[in-house]
C-alpha cells in the first residue's frame, strides 16, 4: 500500500458509503457522489467508509483526490478510523459461537481496536457464564437486557462506532432502538438454515451523537476466516489475557500450547485463563501455522 499523509487539523470530508465504484462523501456543502482517482488503485488503496478525504472537480464531477492516513481499518466490515467496535452476541437464537467470538476479538486486537461485547436476548437464555468468561479475558461486556443502552451511548460519543455480529443476533434491531430514524431492516431468523438472512448490503455511516454510527453486513464464520490472515506469532498479542505472561515462559519462542515452563499454560491451570479461550487460540495458531507453511 502506498503512503498516506496524516489528516490535517480540521479535515471535514468523510466517506459515508461506497458502492459500485461510487463514494458518497459528507462535506460542509452536503453529501456528494464521487469517483476516486485511479492513483489509489495503483497504490493498492481502496477507499473505505470512514476515510477522511479531499475532493476536487474534474469535468464537472467530484473526485476523491486524497485519502488521509487511517488510525485503523477493518477488512470485514470494510471501514476505517473506528473509535468504538461493538461485537453483538445473542444469548440464544442463535446461541453464542465462542470460536467465532474469539476470532472476532482477535481480529479487532490485530487491528489495534479494543472491542466491547454486547449481549442480546438474555431474556431467552442465561448468559452469566459467557459474560464472566469474557470479562475475565479482559473485555467489557454489556448485557443490553439488564443494563440498557445507556453505557453504549456513552461510549459512542463522537468518532465512528461500528457494530459487528453474526446474522440474527439483533444488531440492526438494537441500532434501530437507539436511532429509530435509520429504519434499518431487521429480517427474520431462518429456522430451516439456523441463521439469519442477510438484510444489510453495504457498510454505511450515519451521523449520530456528534459522530457516526455504522451498520455493517452480516457475516458467516467462513467469510470471517477469509477476511484476516494471522501470522502464528502475532496471535499471542491478540488474546489480552495472555499479555501479562508473555516474556515469562522458559523458552523464548514458546507457542503457549504444549511447552514446559510456559507461563500462559500455568495461568490456564490456575484458572486465570478460560479453557475455551485457550482452545480457540490453539486452533487459530494451528490454522495460521499451516497457512504460513513450515512454522513452529
Distance between the termini: 29 Å
What CATH calls the topology of the largest domain is: Rossmann fold
Mean pLDDT: 87
CATH class (first level) name of the largest domain: Alpha Beta
Q: Tell me the count of domains.
A: 3
Task: Quickly give the CATH architecture of the largest domain.
Answer: 3-Layer(aba) Sandwich
User: Number of helical runs?
Assistant: 9
Oligomer classification: single chain
Bulk shape? globular
- Strand arrangement within the widest β-sheet reads 10-9-8-11-15-14
- The CATH superfamily title of the largest domain: P-loop containing nucleotide triphosphate hydrolases
Helix content: 25-40%
Annotation, overall tally of beta strands: 15
How much β-strand is present in the residues?
A: 15-25%
Rg, nearest Å = 21 Å
Q: Quick one: biggest sheet?
A: 6 strands, mixed
Which ranges are low-confidence, i.e. pLDDT below 50, for 5 or more consecutive residues? 185-200
**String of helices and strands:** EEEHEEEEEHEHEHHEHEEEEHHH
Alpha-beta classification: alpha/beta
Protein model, in words:
This protein is an alpha/beta fold and 296 residues long. It has helices at 39-43, 98-110, 128-136, 144-147, 150-155, 171-178, 221-227, 263-269, 275-292; strands at 14-19, 22-27, 30-36, 53-58, 61-67, 73-74, 79-80, 84-90, 116-120, 140-143, 160-165, 189-190, 195-196, 204-208, 211-215. Helix 2 (98-110) crosses helix 9. The longest helix is centred in the C-terminal third of the chain and has 18 residues, at 275-292. The radius of gyration is 21 Å and the shape is globular. The two termini are 29 Å apart.
Amino acid at each position: 500500500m502506498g503512503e498516506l499523509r496524516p489528516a490535517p487539523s480540521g479535515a471535514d470530508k468523510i466517506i459515508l458509503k461506497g458502492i459500485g465504484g461510487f463514494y458518497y462523501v459528507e462535506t460542509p456543502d452536503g453529501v456528494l457522489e464521487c469517483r476516486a482517482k485511479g492513483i489509489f488503485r495503483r497504490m493498492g488503496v481502496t477507499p473505505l467508509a470512514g476515510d477522511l478525504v479531499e475532493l476536487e472537480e474534474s469535468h464537472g464531477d467530484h473526485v476523491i483526490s486524497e485519502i488521509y492516513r487511517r488510525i485503523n481499518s477493518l477488512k470485514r466490515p470494510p471501514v476505517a478510523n473506528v473509535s468504538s467496535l461493538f461485537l453483538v452476541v445473542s444469548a440464544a437464537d442463535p446461541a453464542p459461537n465462542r470460536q467465532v467470538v474469539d476470532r472476532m476479538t482477535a481480529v479487532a486486537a490485530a487491528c489495534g481496536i479494543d472491542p466491547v461485547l454486547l449481549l442480546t436476548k438474555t431474556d431467552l437464555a442465561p448468559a452469566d457464564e459467557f459474560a464472566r468468561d469474557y470479562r475475565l479475558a479482559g473485555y467489557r461486556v454489556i448485557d443490553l437486557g439488564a443494563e440498557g443502552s445507556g453505557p453504549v451511548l456513552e461510549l459512542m460519543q463522537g468518532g465512528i462506532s461500528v457494530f459487528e455480529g453474526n446474522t440474527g443476533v439483533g444488531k440492526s434491531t438494537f441500532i434501530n432502538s437507539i436511532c429509530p430514524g435509520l429504519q434499518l431492516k431487521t429480517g427474520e431468523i431462518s429456522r430451516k438454515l439456523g441463521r439469519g438472512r442477510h438484510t444489510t448490503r453495504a457498510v454505511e455511516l450515519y451521523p449520530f451523537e456528534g459522530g457516526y454510527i455504522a451498520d455493517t453486513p452480516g457475516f458467516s464464520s467462513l467469510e470471517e476466516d477469509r477476511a484476516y490472515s494471522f501470522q502464528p506469532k502475532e496471535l499471542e498479542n491478540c488474546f489480552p489475557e495472555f499479555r501479562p505472561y508473555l516474556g515469562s515462559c522458559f523458552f523464548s519462542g514458546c507457542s503457549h500450547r504444549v511447552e514446559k515452563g510456559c507461563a500462559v499454560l500455568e495461568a490456564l491451570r490456575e484458572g486465570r485463563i478460560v479453557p475455551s479461550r485457550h482452545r480457540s487460540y490453539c486452533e487459530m495458531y494451528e490454522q495460521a501455522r499451516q497457512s504460513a507453511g513450515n512454522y513452529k
